[in-house]
Amino acid sequence: MIEIKQIIKKQSGKVAIIIFLISMAVPTVGHYMKKKEKYEIELIPGFNKGFRLTGYDSRYKENHDIGRLQYGEMAEKTDWRIGQWGCTKNLINSVHTKEGNTDVYFDGSKTLKINNDTGGFVLDIDGSKDYTKDRKEGEAWIHFILEVPSLPVQVKISDINFLEYALEFNLTKEKNNNIHFNSGLHTALFIWYITLNDRDPTSPTYGDYFWFGLPIYDYRYDYSPFFAQQDGGKEDKTEKFVINPKGEDFLNNSVQLNVPQHMRVDVFRMLKNAYELAVSRGFMKNTTFEKLSIASMYIGWELPGNFDVAMKVDKISMKAGIR
After folding, report:
1. CA 82 to chain centre
2. What is the pLDDT of residue 56?
3. Which residues contact 204 (CB under 8 A, 6 or more apart)?
4. Could you count the other beta carbons within 10 Å of the beta carbon of residue 317?
């Protein structure tokens, strides 16, 4: 059983009681659900343990951990991993500099900035340094993502009644380099995904999951349209069901260049609708919504086309609990 260090806030009238749960097993969260007590818990860990780095092809296990970024504790077991699928340059060879209390890493095409005062970050990538020609259908595409492959706190759907995303961000670079741009094939996506996994060891579908994503930015649209289908389009596909609600469901405004934005949305009801749609399409049939857990997440760039783009994230949060 995974152990966590977390702060849960219980609200009782006007009194806020802060309980420090040291080495608490994840199912203890269920205590509050059974008693119908209010609580909230932050699911996104800090960067202090550092970052694992990936190689370029996710089909091969040896590419899932090729070393550590020169940051933080550089722990053997980190919460975070930097996904570099489809790239041709790697942050393991990056040049490290400082801008005040911000660490900056540059590998020739990707720039990662980590603000140690705020926990914010910048994901900046020049696809033009990786792509040598327009991407064709079926070819792999570039990823520059911050992943938590296994969340330290994996709450069960049955133990929560809200899941709140919060993000303060700013698109600071946007350039289309495709020679023959095809909107059905080429785009730049900044997206925030979680997986909902069946964690019941007695279930016949134990370990099965589906993707739920918020497409924050899509070069082709002011607001990304609803999307629901099996993961595919490239060789290293997961073949799991993917559901993205339309942008109007969670964004306050369309994302524009150099215009700071903020987003705060409770997606709990969207998750239930997503599960029901997955079942209707033949996925996740041998489990129930209540047995699922929020198990992993990633946020960042997917570039199925040749774009130079950058996103500055000042604050990020994903909280769950009972209200």
Report:
1. 11
2. 86
3. 286
4. 14
Mention every residue, 6+ apart, whose C-beta is less than 8 A from residue 14: none
- At 21, the amino acid letter reads L
Total structural domains within the chain: 1
pLDDT of residue 203: 87
Distance CA 144, CA 105 (A): 13
Does the structure show a pLDDT above 80 at 272?
yes
Range of the domain at 131: 3-322
The vertex-288 CA angle with 283 and 291, nearest 5°, equals 115
Question: CATH number, domain at 137?
Answer: 2.60.120
Using CB atoms within 10 A of its CB, is residue 228 exposed (0-12), middle (13-18) or buried (19+)? middle
The CB density around residue 318, as the number of other CB atoms within 10 Å, is: 21
CA-wise closest residue to 277 among 208, 232, 210: 210
How far is 110 from 107, CA to CA, in rounded Å? 6
CA 174 to each of CA 112, 188, 310: distance values in angstroms, whole numbers, following the listed order: 16, 9, 7
Distance CA 184, CA 279 (A): 27
pTM: 0.87
- pLDDT per position as a tens digit, 189-216: 999 999 999 998 888 889 999 999 999 9
